[in-house]
Amino acid sequence: MIEVINFTKRYGEFTAVDDLSFSIGEGEIFGFIGPNGAGKSTTIRFLATLLRPTSGEGRIAGHSVTEDPMAVRRVIGFMPDDFGVYDGMKVWEFLDFFAVAYEIPKAMRRRIIGEVLELLDLTHKRDDYVNGLSKGMKQRLCLAKTLVHDPPVLILDEPASGLDPRARLEMKALLNELRRMGKTILVSSHILSELADFCTSIGVIERGRLLAAGSIRDIQRKIRAHRVLKVELTSGETDRAATILRDDPAIDSVEAYGRSVTAEFHGDDEDMGRLLGRLMAAGVPVQSFAEEPLSLEEVFMMITKGIVN
Ligand SMILES: Nc1ncnc2c1ncn2[C@@H]1O[C@H](COP(=O)(O)OP(=O)(O)O)[C@@H](O)[C@H]1O
Ligand SMILES: [Mg+2]
Predict the structure, then answer these.
(1) For residue range 35-63, what is the model confidence (pLDDT) as tens digits?
(2) Which of 18, 47, 80, 168 is most buried (CB neighbours < 10 A)?
């Protein structure tokens, strides 16, 4: 749905983004993660057709970002990292302004604005002035204006930045809601944990270069040559479980602690099923049996330390 192909942007001698390529499938939430100055906004502004590349190409829903920017604008909702000042404009006027810009017929505008305000929980602010809104509400309003033309793709540049914890949670809930509505979302952040719960894929960028990109699961796999299995028992019979596991050719090492056994494992999903079967057949009181995922934080640390790629 979104493709970045060898995108490079230079400002004079300085290379802000260096030969970036990644793609995002339909219905995904792609977390674009990197520290300040990494090149996130540069890439996002390029995709939003607001910045010409030094070289490279981008495609959104099949349209070329450089050759057909108008078609791209129709299919994307773009939320910039800064919020303009709109003196003397009321909330509904602000949304109406964008609805007009997107050529939505007058007869439909009122209904659409009502729906968008409802979705973003701003109905009670309809007739308030934009400038009087709290930061969190301004962010929500900014998200609202990216939705008036019902685009399938949302490109959001640090939508939760500068928000207090409660407003951050609200923003998260909203993005989840938009995902449920089937939108494909690219969302950037310099704070990893902000995106950890709900992204289906991520791209990590640092100093203009992409360090890793892909589904969270694939990246986790790549980082860990060995998967880790965690078995919890209802009683402390870890010795028996550990012996059975140690015996298996797919297991590399086993550690027992309290009522749980952790094992490094190099098999596939079928091997996992077989292992569980062996434990059950031996009457080991298994309470849970699962692969232990790496946290996104661990993934990120490993990527930025150069352990992957
Ligand atoms: N118009 C510009 N002229 C010169 N350098 C720029 C310009 N815009 C951005 N940069 C530089 O490019 C780098 C990437 O910036 P940006 O894409 O805004 O990073 P991020 O959004 O990840 O914080 C930064 O070092 C920034 O200073
Ligand atoms: Mg930025």
Answers:
(1) 889 999 999 999 999 999 999 999 999 99
(2) 47
Number of domains observed in the structure of the chain? 2
Q: Whole domain around residue 168: which residue ranges? A: 2-86+138-215
Cβ–ligand 1 distance for 34 under 6 Å, the answer yes
Judgement on whether residues 204 and 235 belong to the same structural domain of the protein: no
Rounded CA gap, 81 and 271, in Å?
Answer: 47
Q: Which domain CATH number covers 236?
A: 3.30.70.100
- Measured in residues, the chain has a length of 309
Q: List all residues 6 or more positions away from 157 whose beta carbon is below 8 Å from its beta carbon.
A: 40, 41, 44, 78, 79, 80, 81, 188
Helix (H, G, I), strand (E, B) or coil at 154: strand
Q: Which ligand has the minimum distance to the alpha carbon of residue 37?
A: 1
Say how far residue 5 (Cα) sits from the centre of its chain. 19
Q: What is the pLDDT of residue 15?
A: 96
pLDDT of residue 59: 98
Mean of pLDDT values over 108-126: 93
Q: How far is the CA of 39 from the centre of ligand 1 (A)?
A: 6
62: left (phi over 0), alpha (psi -120 to 50) or beta: left
Q: Express each pLDDT in 86-113 by its tens digit.
A: 778 999 999 999 999 999 999 899 999 9
Centroid of ligand 2 to alpha carbon of 99 (angstroms): 26
In angstroms, what is the span from residue 63 Cα to ligand 2's centroid? 24
Does 231 lie in the same domain as 209?
A: no
Rounded CA-CA distance 45/157 in Å is 9
pLDDT confidence of 309, banded at 50, 70, 90?
very low
pTM for the full predicted model: 0.79
